Structure to design on (863 residues):
């Protein structure tokens, strides 16, 4: 028999590979669907590419690549027999086969046992060889099979380190000595005893000293007084004050220099008057918020509709998305996008074509992964109600824990998240992110990957007309810019309960000064009309240069809609920055209407009697010393050396730190850190800072003012990418940047004031072979009747129409800042509001429309 198997595998031996370092083994999920080893058909792993495929998709991969040998993985899940010992470790066979699934199972290990099965399958005859089969298989095949079985999941290394490393109990926990000094810690109003810091505060568990932590790259932190206190006193343990919940707290050991566990933390805290059971859990997956947690408690209850008996819904369009750990920002955005027909049609409607023409590695193809997620959400295949017989059996047994196995499990967005966040310093992390920023990131990716085909993000794009007026000469300039979202201010001064707010603020300050518990919070109630009025009011233009006066002057700007999008996105500007540059949320509600008419905000263009400002650019003024000795000035630019040293202490090369601080305009170590993360893979990352001479001659441009010489003849690729992502031809974008000395805002103005040159630039773009630089290079080939006729030949594509809208979805945020908290979304489907809270999907009883963060409207028909 051994000879027979060896002969059988001989023709396929050249295609069987042993996974090398760097090879990713996709043995937990199909590349085209959400099938896994726990699915009915199991999972097939190609023994050459190590890609995983469900039963429906493995034949496609075989036909496309000719790869014949696959490893079939199947996990059999069974309920424990009656009388099994409670809490026993589930029985496993081939325990290392699905090591990566241990973190991902959707059932209670104490109630179920499972058996893992692996075998080789040879296509097209489906000949099966059970594993392990060391004696009968050739040595190379045995080694390859063992390597695949023992390989970690393709995405395991992306899990947060804190999930992989077990925190140890501190050696000081059991014998910690606490001073009987009468210190009692109030429930809020904390601040460092040595400075005024109110963030990142740590309570020393020996003497009750409240002191600030050290500065961190994300902008949080303090002045390091907690560490100084340890060096002075040798008191080893401290607990983070704003992370204490009934489930535990973050404890740090200064002596052991790491986070530790304190089994006696409840007793240690009660010594200083802190009752852990009274502390409310207010963060998602352990991310911290600030001291003012009490207002957030009711917010969590209202937005998640806690306390209501919500009816679970199943079927097409009612599939939840698993939370990977602070990934709810992604889940809510994708749920809303795939509730829109244009996205459904683009990705799910073209599913077979996208799959059939996908590249050899579909895990790295944007269209494939979008189609996969869209099909998972809309097919109903992963949202099936439990059978009646199962429910009856559960009721008879009264085993409520077993219900978890039959409840909604949702689908995992792990593969899509890894793809769309690749190279992004924030979205690729496990930290909470801003859903609005991720939404714009997704729109940008959709546009970049829709060149030459239908672009579903066209529905969001619109033009804003900006009217700028010189206050002294009364002359005006009209420009247009592309946008995808309206950001509405939230004017607190317009709150209808202003008196209540003032009284609350006075009581809060008094309680803080006297270290008493804060009063019951009062949430500002702001009329939606006040937000809309604040958006349309004229705003001052900083550093306005009047081309009529040839000098700086006062200027005001008003914005109106030059076109109305098919789908309107409204973001409420609820977040501001605190003194530590950490985003904080304004505590308010806004009665957002179900129906919205913005027709009166339609732009009117230049009016009769208005005189335009001359089309002149401000001159570039060089300092006197640079004209005489330009190189000496450039060789020693102004750099914040304190910020450089802070970054260098983190371990980054000194020259890289200098460049980071210089290129971020000395705006502080946080901005410079972000620059480092974004550029650290570049080959010249650690090279010394080198600036080109301002006196180097360059080709002049007839579009700029006389005597204005561009500082750099080649515009930055980042600026070109931003303009091309808006739909402008690459050559036209380069010309605009060159004509405006690489000023992005002025380049946009130049593009709109020089449309007659775009046709020539479009022709020149056809010879440009750089990929993905122009998401709209074939935009004019579409015949969409809703496109604005005067913009179809040039400029960005917009779907103009009436300005009347109806609300169909909104995303809500709970928590104190975008760096923490949780997102849920509500979507109106079939006339009913539905709440999507990670994997849970239920009918909404009382949708909290006044507490949303991002609102989505669709245009009403003109009939």
């Amino acid at each position: 028999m051994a000879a027979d198997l060896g002969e059988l595998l001989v023709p396929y031996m050249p295609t069987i590979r042993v996974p090398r370092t760097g090879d990713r083994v996709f043995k937990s999920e199909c590349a085209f669907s959400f099938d896994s080893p726990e699915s009915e058909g199991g999972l097939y792993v190609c023994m050459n590419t190590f890609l995983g495929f469900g039963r429906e998709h493995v034949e496609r991969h075989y036909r496309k690549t000719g790869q014949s040998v696959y490893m079939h993985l199947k996990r059999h899940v069974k309920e424990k027999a009656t009388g099994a010992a409670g809490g026993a470790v589930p029985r496993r066979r081939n325990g290392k086969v699905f090591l990566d699934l241990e973190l991902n199972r959707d059932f209670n290990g104490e109630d179920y046992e499972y058996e893992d099965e692996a075998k080789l399958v040879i296509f097209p005859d489906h000949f099966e060889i059970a594993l392990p089969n060391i004696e009968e298989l050739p040595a190379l095949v045995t080694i390859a099979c063992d390597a695949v079985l023992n390989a970690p999941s393709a995405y395991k290394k992306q899990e947060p380190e804190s999930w992989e490393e077990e925190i140890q109990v501190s050696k000081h926990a059991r014998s910690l000595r606490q001073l009987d000094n009468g210190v009692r810690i109030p429930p809020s109003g904390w601040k460092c005893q040595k400075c005024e810091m109110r963030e990142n505060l740590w309570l020393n568990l020996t003497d009750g000293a409240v002191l600030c932590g050290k500065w961190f790259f994300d902008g949080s932190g303090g002045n390091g007084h907690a560490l100084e206190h340890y060096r002075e006193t040798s008191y080893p343990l401290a607990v983070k004050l704003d992370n204490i919940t009934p489930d535990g707290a973050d404890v740090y050991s200064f002596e052991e220099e790491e986070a530790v566990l304190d089994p006696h933390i409840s007793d240690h805290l009660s010594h200083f008057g802190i009752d852990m059971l009274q502390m409310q859990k207010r963060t998602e997956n352990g991310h911290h918020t600030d001291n003012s947690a009490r207002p957030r408690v009711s917010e969590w209850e209202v937005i998640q509709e806690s306390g209501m008996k919500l009816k679970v819904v199943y079927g097409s369009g009612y599939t939840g998305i698993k939370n990977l750990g602070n990934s709810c920002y992604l889940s809510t955005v994708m749920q809303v996008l795939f509730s829109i027909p244009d996205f459904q049609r683009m990705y799910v409607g073209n599913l077979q074509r996208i799959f059939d023409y996908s590249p050899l590695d579909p895990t790295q193809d944007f269209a494939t992964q979008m189609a996969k997620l869209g099909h998972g959400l809309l097919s109903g295949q992963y949202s099936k109600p439990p059978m009646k017989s199962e429910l009856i059996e559960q009721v008879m047994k009264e085993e409520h824990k077993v219900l978890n196995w039959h409840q909604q499990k949702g689908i995992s967005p792990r593969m899509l998240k890894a793809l769309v966040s690749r190279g992004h310093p924030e979205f690729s992390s496990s930290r909470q992110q801003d859903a609005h920023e991720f939404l714009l990131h997704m729109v940008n990716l959709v546009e970049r990957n829709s060149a030459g085909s239908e672009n579903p993000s066209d529905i969001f794009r619109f033009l804003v007309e900006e009217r700028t007026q010189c206050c002294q000469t009364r002359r005006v300039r009209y420009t247009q810019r592309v946008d995808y979202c309206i950001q509405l201010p939230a004017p607190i001064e317009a709150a209808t309960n202003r008196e209540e707010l003032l009284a609350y603020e006075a009581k809060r300050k008094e309680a803080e000064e006297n270290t008493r518990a804060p009063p019951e919070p009062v949430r500002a109630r702001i009329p939606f009309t006040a937000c809309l009025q604040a958006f349309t009011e004229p705003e001052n233009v900083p550093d306005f240069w009047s081309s009529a006066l040839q000098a700086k002057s006062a200027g005001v700007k008003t914005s109106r809609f030059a076109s109305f999008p098919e789908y309107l996105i409204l973001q409420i500007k609820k977040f501001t920055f605190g003194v530590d540059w950490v985003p904080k949320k304004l505590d308010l509600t806004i009665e957002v209407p179900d129906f919205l008419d913005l027709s009166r905000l339609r732009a009117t263009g230049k009016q009769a009697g208005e005189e335009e400002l001359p089309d002149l650019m401000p001159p570039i003024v060089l300092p006197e010393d640079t004209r005489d000795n330009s190189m000496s000035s450039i060789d020693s630019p102004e750099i914040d050396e304190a910020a450089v040293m802070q970054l260098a202490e983190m371990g980054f090369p000194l020259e890289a730190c200098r460049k980071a601080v210089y290129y971020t305009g000395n705006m502080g170590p946080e901005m410079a850190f972000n620059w480092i993360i974004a550029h650290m893979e570049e080959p010249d990352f650690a090279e010394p800072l080198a600036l080109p001479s301002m006196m180097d001659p360059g080709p002049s441009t007839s579009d700029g003012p006389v005597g204005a010489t561009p500082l750099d003849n080649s515009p930055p690729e980042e600026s070109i990418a931003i303009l091309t992502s808006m739909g402008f031809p690459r050559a036209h974008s380069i010309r605009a940047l060159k004509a405006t000395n690489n000023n992005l805002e002025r380049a946009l103005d130049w593009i709109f004031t020089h449309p007659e040159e775009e046709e020539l630039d479009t022709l020149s773009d056809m010879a440009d072979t750089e990929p993905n630089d122009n998401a709209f290079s074939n935009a004019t080939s579409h015949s969409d009747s809703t496109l604005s006729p005067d913009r179809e030949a040039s400029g960005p594509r917009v779907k103009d129409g009436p300005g009347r809208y109806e609300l169909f979805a909104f995303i809500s945020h709970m928590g104190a800042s975008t760096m923490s908290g949780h997102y849920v979304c509500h979507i109106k489907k079939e006339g009913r509001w539905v709440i999507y809270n990670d994997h849970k999907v239920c009918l909404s009883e009382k949708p909290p429309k006044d507490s949303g963060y991002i609102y989505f409207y669709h245009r009403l028909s003109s009939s």
User: Anything to note?
Assistant: The mean pLDDT is 79.
